[in-house]
Amino acid sequence: MTAYLITGVSVVGGEPTDLLIRDGMVAAVGDGLAADDATVVDATGLVALPGLVDLHTHLREPGREDAETVESGSRAAALGGYTAVCAMANTSPVADTAGVVEQVWRLGREAGLVDVQPIGAVTVGLAGERLAELGAMADSAAGVRIFSDDGHCVADPRLMRRALEYVKAFDGVIAQHAEEPRLTEGAQMHEGEVSTRLGLTGGPAVAEEAIIARDVLLAEHVGSRLHVCHVSTAGSVEVLRQAKARGVRVTAEVTPHHLLLTDAKAESYDPVFKVNPPLRTAADIAALREALAEGVIDIIATDHAPHAVEDKECEWAYARPGMLGLETALSIALDVFGPRWDLIAERMSRTPARIAGLTGHGVDPAPGVPANLTLVDPAARRVIEPAELASRSRNTPYARMTLPGRIVATFLRGEPTVLDGKAVK
């Protein structure tokens, strides 16, 4: 392995120092470090963060390699500063067996750009009728610990209870796509003033809030771990706040787009802004930002959802919901919160790694820890050009926006996956 000496870097916003990386580990931290055999990386003005961890990524492989592959999604993740991503189960075939999750896990290892941790389906085929092979996936080489039917809600309360009971045996997590389907049938966007004016069928906020309220009660009853995907409403925040005050074992995520974009974007009828859960109101955004800052919402997760051109560049009603997120997430966090580096490290690295049980990730650079880290230029500003993104898809809602921050380098166990803002392989 090549040794690297990173000089003049601010570790999570602290005073400038040097980092020596050797044999995949952080060997030393301090001023004036020297190593004749090390490649020097001048990091003056840069901030070192623990490598980012995404708990909610859609890599599409197997089945929709026209939209994304494990390799292309991994490259996008590395360029976004990530060293680990959790790949959602809604592939084709669905990741509901040990064989499929092991395939995704091995593809991630072959790409070698980030650690790809598969998420297993809760139910067979995401159909919501019977439990998938949760134990077999947990015992597989992939070591699955998070299960989700994301894209579909586990709507049957008996099935949800059984899933929570099953994973409790190995301290697993059920990650719920909270959406009561009977309240959102035919929904095209958030139900509110904008949907009424546009004449589009809306999905009410209560469809999300009702499922979260039910599931925290089930998790409390069972004593199991629940994770709520892509929280999007102020009402959901209040349900979570009350649940956490009672000691329920619940964690929650919010996406970058739900922290920044409102339902007013639908006025353009541009399907790039169609997403599920839908973009909400300015009042919801304010509540989400406050909840994330105080820890009621635990993490930022991208819900990176690439789509092929034909699935997005069509009429709004026929477009697939979803947005790209891996290459812009840190910039959105900086845009929303500014250089609150400890908060960003906590919400985008330490806590998601802890929820997923990813040993070696989410640890601040320090002697003796794995060298999973990212270097950020906080002074840089960049214009988002879809054609320059590493993803196979182009459905970014931030096209031609100027956003703060630039990922200069990403290291996975001491080996660079990104240098000078470019993917190494």
3D architecture notes:
The longest helix is centred in the middle third of the chain and has 18 residues, at 205-222. 57% of the residues are buried. The chain has helices at 70-79, 98-111, 134-139, 157-168, 193-198, 205-222, 234-245, 256-260, 282-294, 309-312, 329-337, 341-356, and strands at residues 3-11, 16-22, 25-30, 38-42, 47-50, 52-57, 82-87, 115-118, 146-147, 173-176, 189-190, 202-203, 225-228, 250-254, 299-300, 373-383, 402-412, 415-419, 422-423. It contains twelve helices and 19 strands. The protein has two domains: 3-48 and 367-423, Roll (Urease, subunit C, domain 1), CATH 2.30.40.10; 51-356, TIM Barrel, CATH 3.20.20. Helix 6 (205-222) packs parallel to helix 7. 29% of the residues lie in helices and 23% in strands. Helix 5 (193-198) links the parallel strand 11 and strand 12. The strands form four sheets. Strands 1, 2, 3, 4, 5, 16, 17, 18 and 19 form a nine-stranded mixed beta sheet that branches. By secondary structure, it is α/β, with parallel strands linked by helices.
Please give the radius of gyration in angstroms: 21 Å
Structural class: alpha/beta
Total separate domains? 2
Mean pLDDT: 98
CATH topology of the largest domain, what is it called? TIM Barrel
CATH level-two architecture of the largest domain? Alpha-Beta Barrel
Name of the CATH class of the largest domain: Alpha Beta
Low-confidence stretches: none
Percent helix: 25-40%
